[in-house]
Amino acid sequence: MKPVRVSLIAATAVAGGLVVGPASAQSIEAFYKGKVMNLYVGSAPGGGYDTYGRAVARHIADHVPGKPSIVVKNMPGASGLRLAGYMYNAANKSGIEIAGIHNTAVVDQLLGSKVQFDARKFNWLGSANQLTSTCVSRASTGITTVQQAMEKELLVGATGSSSSSTQLVAAFMNSLTGTKFKIIKGYPSTSSVFLAMERGEVGGLCGIGWDSLRAQVLAEIKAGKIVILVQTGTEKNPDLKDVPLVLDLARNDADRTVLEFLVARQYMGRPYVAPPSTPADRVAALRAAFMATMNDPGFKATAKKSRVPLSPITGQQVTDHVNKLFAMPKSIIDRANAATQVNPAAIAEAKLAWKTAKGATIGGVKKRKLQFTDGSRKVTADLSGTSIMVKGKKAKRSALKAGMVCDVTYLGDGDAAGKVTCN
């Protein structure tokens, strides 16, 4: 009966306007103390979402009452929809599981994608950055301005499903601004697309955030080898003041309104959620912890080292923004849906030249890169999303040790490894 009496006292105190914060804080601390929290990321290791997620996980525990341990778990699939569905339907709703989901989740739902969630019911904790997305080209293609991309076809590599930003942005750019991007889909990651650009398989990439772009190929941008054609967002990024803004390329006011809807998701560029039905007091604690993390000097130093920009917004701001998107007129949503449909003539499957190194000697694993020999050549391959089998059982990349002999299926030196099988 003791817990009931405490609850009644607390309820009476609230009704009478008394301060009960310390008792509530104590219960939150007691809940999280000694616990292990899972922070999920809706993509494979590497890339923007993973980089942000690991930075948040490294510091947020210091700001959650009780200071639980934080474990990062990657759940890639369907351009983030798999994780969003998990968080809505299957995640532990006690406040012990949170996730960095894709910012496309709301637009996916509104545009009629087959989703297993209602974005309005997530407990939005905040967003680490207001995203600026870009389309880029390799200078050697001869297409170095967005105007030239309206006059001549440019092959752009794409990852994931049709809801991936790498396909979505190219599609609506074609529909609403007149660019002539041809989407070559099926690359394992944006890193693979950049390597494909080096090989001349494709000439560009759309839908990559400025934060990810800066982290991956800043040196090539500075050297003039990669050119930023356009930025997509609600307003110009101060870092890209000379790069055209997509809204200014709209051919008429109606198209601009549709573009404003399509880029609105970027206001919440790196959002975090707790599942629906998570207790309100724990949601409040997680929201406070998230914003405290955003202001933590240690977190800011980690973000700077990882070359990811920060422009955080609160959980309430994200919630208000989501509700605003759902209040958009159906006519605009319908036009946006039409604008993101890809003309069959403007899309093709990537011809991925997978190769297998039989009996490769493993040199080790460093920063998710597998070092091994293919014949007499020393090469590396990215283990993000790789299927790893050791002695007939699924294994993690930590199971790959120097000296092991394995078969490695990979795209090329420095590119993705699709499968590693060790006996």
| End-to-end Cα distance | 59 Å
Total domain count: 3
CATH fold assignment of the largest domain: D-Maltodextrin-Binding Protein, domain 2
Percent in strands? 15-25%
Which secondary-structure class do the elements indicate? alpha/beta
Silhouette: globular
Name the CATH class of the largest domain: Alpha Beta
Q: What is the rounded Rg?
A: 23 Å
Fourth-tier CATH superfamily name of the largest domain: Periplasmic binding protein-like II
- Mean pLDDT, to the nearest integer, reads 91
Number of distinct beta strands: 19
Largest sheet properties: 7 strands, mixed
Uncertain stretches: 1-23
CATH architecture of the largest domain: 3-Layer(aba) Sandwich
Helix content: 25-40%
Number of helices: 14
For the largest beta sheet, what order do the strands appear in spatially?
15-14-13-18-19-16-17
Description:
This protein is an alpha/beta fold and 423 residues long. It folds into 3 domains: 33-129 and 269-311, 3-Layer(aba) Sandwich (D-Maltodextrin-Binding Protein, domain 2), CATH 3.40.190; 133-265 and 336-349, 3-Layer(aba) Sandwich (D-Maltodextrin-Binding Protein, domain 2); 355-422, Beta Barrel (OB fold (Dihydrolipoamide Acetyltransferase, E2P)). It is built from 14 helices and 19 strands. The chain has helices at 2-15, 21-32, 48-60, 81-89, 105-110, 146-151, 165-177, 190-199, 210-222, 253-263, 280-294, 297-305, 315-326, 330-339; strands at 36-41, 69-74, 97-100, 123-127, 133-138, 154-159, 181-187, 204-209, 226-232, 271-274, 313-314, 347-349, 355-366, 369-374, 377-382, 387-390, 393-394, 405-410, 417-422. A 7-stranded mixed beta sheet has the order 15-14-13-18-19-16-17, with no helix packed on it. A 6-stranded mixed beta sheet has the order 2-1-3-10-4-11, sandwiched between helices. The chain has a 6-stranded mixed beta sheet with strand order 9-5-8-6-7-12, with helices on both faces. A hairpin with a 2-residue loop joins strand 14 (369-374) and strand 15 (377-382). Helix 3 (48-60) packs antiparallel against helix 12. The longest helix has 15 residues, at 280-294. It is globular, with a radius of gyration of 23 Å.
